[in-house]
Structures are given as structure tokens and as C-alpha cells.
Design goal:
Length: 444
């Protein structure tokens, strides 16, 4: 293997190379740092690079490998972190001037765990401001482009996380997902993205948006990478994906809301993906659950009320430093009372009961990850109403997983910027990843 090839390999392949003594972790980290430094999009993807930390962690990984004491399959593999995970002594600003100069004293616990498992921190990636947009447009800091269209957004809010992997500037990335922020950028950059269950991974030291929905998850090249990265975030051994098959599996094709107004490419990609799964032995049955429309209609209450409660005072102290469309999303939350929020939450929990009863006979539920393709940056900047409507459409399908409380995996379909989502009940990530591994082979 040549160094020039390392930045295009999967995280698991790199880990295997380290384990065999074929890849030096220090040289590997330096290869990524060098590529970031010279890449024309490096500064639009990374908010801050941490070379001293990366090389020190890589040296420790090299020593462990030499002693036969590697801590995980990804020990020594370089990854990026979304700029809302606290990093000791390094600014964590969540893509916002409101947090400019904010330097935490300690790493977030999830970063501490990943570091203990041997992951090497390359730096912090750009994101939508305070994580409150699915588009990834951020004129305040930087807007990474989609890997498939340099004039289009990358998806958000984990925009830099996705592009760091898609452009070969990290082997894997860690992001967060509140309404689709891992899945949308993964989808639009042809990656695998895992939305974990609420409460599965600690949110301590993670800049919040809406704590009732915030989750942490990986963005990766392959399902195997996602499984091993997810395991590293939890400090445990990864799930066994060997022998995963779709034969005899029964999937529900959700028809409520998620198939409305699909653009031509996502519609074609979804139909072709389902055909491939069926050809691999899966049974696919349509499923309509009208009750999920109630919390989807309440999403404006649920999300903006939490977000305004979290950030309202900070925003009111300096509103002009924010990108106006995102500030306005936050401000929409101040119209709702505590009673409004609690009633919406109760309706959501009732809808979850109906959804899980209706889907109980299936191995998983399927839907298109995004109903649209990445919008053009210029058009989003020039047309305020287009920004609003396209952002809401972008997040519509992924938000189903958040309001229903699922764990969800998005996979590339082979059609650029079009993904297939597989949803399972909460806390079933390992089973979901086995299904994903089988589906990944079928879609390939």
C-alpha cells in the first residue's frame, strides 16, 4: 500500500493494516494532516485541525501496536469530530459566532471514550449554526460543498463531518443527529450514517440543540466502519456482521408522508433499491401509519420550543451575529407555552405506541433518506423562502425516525446523493447494523 492510497481506504481496512504492521499510525495521521493542509476545501471542511494531538495519539497507537496491545480494531485510525463536541483546550463553537472563543476545559465523555479505544482526533469540522438546519449552509463560518456537486450544499448539520470522509480528509467522522443531521449529509455525500437511539451515547460535553432528540452517531464509508466506530464511541467490542443475509427478512415500506413529493432521482433510487433488496431474498410490504402525521405536524412545537428554551437568552443578547434564517427558526419557539410542548410530547408518545405496534411484525422499516437532492448554495442564499421550504422538505423523512424514537441507518443506493433508510426500534443498533451489512451488499 502507498501512502497516497491510505486516505481513500475504509477505516476498518486502515485498522487492519495497522494490526498487520503494514501501516504506521504516525505516518497515517501525517498523511491525513498533509492532505487537509493542501486540499482546496480543507478550510471549508475543518474549523480547526489538531495536529499535535493527532500525532501524539498516533504515537501512542504505534507503541500499542508494536507491543501487541491494540485497544480496538480502529486503534490508530484518524477521525474527525463535529465542532459541537467539547475538546480540552481547543475551541468548540458549534458553527456560531455566539460561541466564538468558547474553549472547554475537558473532552466530552464520548470523545474520551473514543480516544481510550485508540481513535486519533484530526480536528473539528464545520457545521450548520448551532446544528439547527438540515442543509449545511453556514455563511457565518463556512459551507462545505456536496461531494457530487461543488455548487450545492453538503447537508447538515454535520456538513463538515460528512465531507471530511467523502473528500478523503478523515477515515470516519463523528456527528450528531437531532432531526436528520447525520443522515442527510451522509445521504448527500454517498456515505453510511448511523442515527443512534436517544440516550444510547452520552450527550455530556456536547453542545445541545434539543436534548429530547439530540443523538450522537458516525458517518462512514461502509457499514462495517459505522459498526466499529459506533462500538468505539461506546467503549466496547463491535457487533459481528459475518453471515448477515436478507433471505427471509421482512421489511415494511413506509408509505405515510415519506413518499410524498419525491424528486425524480430519489424516487428512482428508492424503487431500484427495493428491487435489489427483494432480489436478495427480502419480502417488502407496504405500511401506512397515519398516526405518525400527528407528531410530524407538531414538530415545529417540539423542536423550536426546546431549541428556544436552550438558546433564547443567548440569541437575544446578540441576535445580529446569527444567519437570519436560522435565528428565525429559533425565534419561532418563543410562541409556544410549556403546556403546548407537553401536549405535543404526549401526542408523540401515543403515536409511537401505534407505530411500533403496526411495525412489530417486520425486521425493519424502509424509506428514502431524503426526498430531494442537495440544493444550490447561491439559490439558498438569494431566496429566503426557498431556504425555508427546502430545509423543511430535506428534514421531513429523517425526522420520522427522531419523532418515532428509532435507530436508523442510511445507506448509499448507487444513485448519487440518494440514500435508503432502515429503521429499527430503539436500542437495537447491533441488529440494525447486521441488516445494514446485508443490504449494503445487495445495493452494491
Amino acid at each position: 500500500m502507498q501512502m497516497s492510497d491510505w486516505t481513500e481506504m475504509s477505516a476498518v481496512e486502515l485498522g487492519q493494516g495497522i494490526g498487520k504492521g503494514e501501516i504506521d499510525p504516525v505516518a497515517l495521521a501525517q498523511a491525513f494532516l498533509d492532505k487537509i493542509a493542501v486540499h482546496p476545501l480543507g478550510s471549508r471542511i475543518y474549523a480547526r485541525v489538531t495536529p499535535e494531538r493527532a500525532l501524539a495519539e498516533a504515537e501512542a497507537a504505534r507503541d500499542r501496536a508494536a507491543a501487541g496491545q491494540r485497544r480496538s480494531p480502529l486503534d490508530g485510525v484518524p477521525v474527525s469530530w463535529k465542532d459541537l463536541f467539547d475538546t480540552a483546550g481547543v475551541a468548540t463553537e458549534a458553527g456560531s459566532k455566539l460561541l466564538e472563543g468558547r474553549v472547554p476545559d475537558a473532552d466530552a465523555p464520548v470523545l474520551q471514550t473514543a480516544t481510550a479505544m485508540g481513535l486519533v482526533c484530526l480536528g473539528k469540522t464545520h457545521m450548520s449554526e448551532l446544528a439547527f438546519s438540515g442543509l449545511g449552509l453556514n455563511p457565518v463560518t463556512a459551507t462545505p460543498p456536496s461531494v457530487n456537486d461543488p455548487e450545492a450544499v453538503a447537508g447538515g448539520s454535520s456538513s463538515g463531518a460528512a465531507t471530511s470522509v467523502a473528500f478523503g480528509l478523515a477515515a470516519a467522522a463523528i456527528g450528531s443527529d437531532t432531526g436528520g443531521s447525520v443522515r442527510i449529509p451522509s445521504c448527500w455525500n454517498d456515505l453510511v450514517g448511523l442515527k443512534t437511539s436517544s440516550g444510547r451515547i452520552s450527550l455530556d460535553g456536547v453542545v445541545p440543540l434539543a436534548k429530547g432528540f439530540d443523538t450522537v452517531g458516525p458517518l462512514c464509508r461502509t457499514v462495517e466502519d459505522a459498526a466499529q466506530t459506533f462500538a468505539a464511541l461506546e467503549g466496547r467490542k463491535g457487533p459481528d456482521l459475518r453471515g448477515a443475509s436478507l433471505v427471509g427478512k421482512r421489511f415494511a415500506r413506509l408509505t405515510t408522508i415519506v413518499l410524498d413529493d419525491l424528486r425524480p432521482e430519489p424516487a428512482r433510487a428508492h424503487a431500484e433499491a427495493l428491487d435489489k433488496l427483494a432480489a436478495a431474498g427480502a419480502e417488502i410490504v407496504d405500511l401506512d401509519v397515519p398516526e405518525i402525521g400527528i407528531p410530524m405536524a407538531d414538530a415545529g412545537v417540539l423542536y423550536t420550543a426546546e431549541a428556544w428554551a436552550e438558546w433564547g437568552e443567548t440569541i437575544e443578547a446578540d441576535p445580529e451575529v446569527m444567519f437570519a434564517p436560522i435565528r428565525e427558526r429559533f425565534e419561532a419557539g418563543r410562541q409556544f407555552s410549556g403546556a403546548d410542548y407537553l401536549r405535543a410530547w404526549e401526542r408523540m408518545m401515543a403515536a409511537r405506541d401505534v407505530y411500533y405496534a403496526a411495525s412489530a411484525g417486520f425486521d425493519a422499516v424502509l424509506c428514502p433518506t431524503a426526498p430531494n437532492l442537495p440544493p444550490k448554495i447561491d439559490k439558498l442564499m438569494e431566496q429566503g423562502e426557498y431556504y425555508v421550504t427546502e430545509n423543511l422538505l430535506t428534514l421531513r423523512n429523517t425526522r420520522v425516525g427522531n419523532v418515532m424514537g428509532t435507530c436508523t441507518l442510511t445507506l448509499p443506493t448507487g444513485v448519487p446523493s440518494c440514500g435508503l433508510s432502515i429503521m429499527c426500534p430503539p436500542m437495537q443498533e447491533d441488529r440494525l447494523l447486521r441488516l445494514g451489512a446485508a443490504a449494503e451488499r445487495a445495493l452494491a
